[in-house]
Each structure stands twice: as structure tokens, then as C-alpha cells.
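hi!! sorry for the late reply, been swamped w classes. u asked for the two structures so here they r. pasted raw, havent cleaned anything up. first the sequence of the first protein and right below it the C-alpha cells
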Amino acid sequence: MLRRAVICLAGMLAMAKALPAEARATTFAIDYNNQTWRPPNGRPQTQASVKQLILRAVQAAHWQAQSVTDALIIASLDVRGKHNIKVAISFNETSFSVTYNSSENMDAWAGSDGRILIHPNYNAWTQRLVTAIRAELERI
């Protein structure tokens, strides 16, 4: 009886170890809304200069950027040719927002409340992008 339980437990552990990283539990996608910053020189910025700084930050963070309008950029990150995420970056002269747009192979789905559940790496990758944008905007 004990031997059978040990064999069963060993089999379950082997199966759990064989699960791919993609099988991790999902978490809510974090949106970064109305992120404000203060430029070190204290001078107001134009929307055009903010856009250029955000584009520079996106590129420095190794994301790809597509300018959609004067106040909207879609940034995408391709990870190992297997995972892809896209975020919308909206902005004005005093704030910016980074929100989920779409993804591939990230186990994303909408919960009953409409919020997006997604692989936890999405939040880590997006946080790095937000940090890069903030650093670029505060560097001027």
C-alpha cells in the first residue's frame, strides 16, 4: 500500500515537472493609467517632444513601436519568437498610460468582470517598459 502511494506520488511529481513554463497560473494584467512625471528642468513639454521621448524609451527597452496618432503608440515585444505582447501607450504633455492591447501565446483571456488574465511574465515585461519610459521622460 505504501509502495503504491510512493509510486503514485513520484508519477505526479514527474508530470508536474514536465509541464512547460507556459502552464503557469494566470494573473490580472496590470494597466498603468495616468502616470505623471516631473521633468528635471521643470519646463512644460510639448506633446511632440513627449512622443519622441517615449519612442526612444520603447526602442531602448527593446520593444518595437508603431505610431498610430499624435497621442497613441502601439508597442510590441516578441520574446524568443514564441510570445508576443502589444500595449497601447497613450500620452499628453503631463502623463502617459500603458494598457494591454493584445497578445499571442500568453494564455490571455477576459474574466467575467472584463479584466484580462494573462501569464505573469506580461506584468514583468510591461513594468520594465513603464520604468524605461519614466526614466526617459524624467531625464530631459
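now the second protein. again sequence first, C-alpha cells right under
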Amino acid sequence: MSDQPERPEEGLAAEPLGEWQLVAPRVSEQEYDIEHHGDVFYVRVNDRGRNFRLAKTPVASPGRESWTEVVPHRPEVMLEGVSGIADYQCGKLLGGRYHRLAPVFPPGVRMPLDAVARVPEMIAFAEAVDLTAATEFLEREWT
């Protein structure tokens, strides 16, 4: 049984004193949370499994019938949040004072989180990342 409120409502951050809007009524044993991004809400919801999935829906019609799947539920992976939205929000808040360091493996290289035998490969990858731009950015913007 969910211990969350019976009727969650989401106010738009741009209009904190504006009218609140019901996104979707609560359903027993289900949780969802909302991230506002422009004219859509991103919805992290566990309606298809305990590890959550990600959907999006227009702000103008946010009900469950409008939810479009973005990332499906995967039994082996817990979707804990949506960092892309946080990245977008940080960029908006900090503007030119925001820099994201996000090295990625080359195309075709996959590194499962439980690949303990490949830890030396991960360390080598991390040590090869050029941090010059990040260091210069921090010294220029934050000192």
C-alpha cells in the first residue's frame, strides 16, 4: 500500500503561486513522480513493475491516458531518477557557469555495473579522460 497522498498534484515551477493541476489519481501499490521540462512532464512510475519506467506527457493533458513510454520497465535495472532533467535544470539555473563532465565509452563498448572483472579496464578509461577543460572551467568560473 502506498503511503503517499491520495491525490498528488503538481504545480509548475515557473508559476509557483499558480493553479495546481492533478496529473493522475493515486493507485494502490503504485508510485510516481514528475519532472517538468518545457511543455511536457516526465513521469517515473512503477505501474508495470517495481523498478519503474519513464513516460512523458503533455503539460496540457497530463493524465495517464496521455502517458507515452520513453524508457520501459526493466526487471534487472532500477530507474531511480532522471538525471537528464536535472542536467537541463542545472544548465538553466547556472547558465554559462555550468559544465558537465560526462565521459562515455566508445560506440559498441558496454560496461555492466556488475562487471567486477573489468574494474581495471574502467580505471584505465577513467585515468585517460582529459580533465583540462573541466579544470580550466572551474578555475575560471568558481574561484
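hope this helps!! also noticed smth abt the second:
The radius of gyration is 19 Å.
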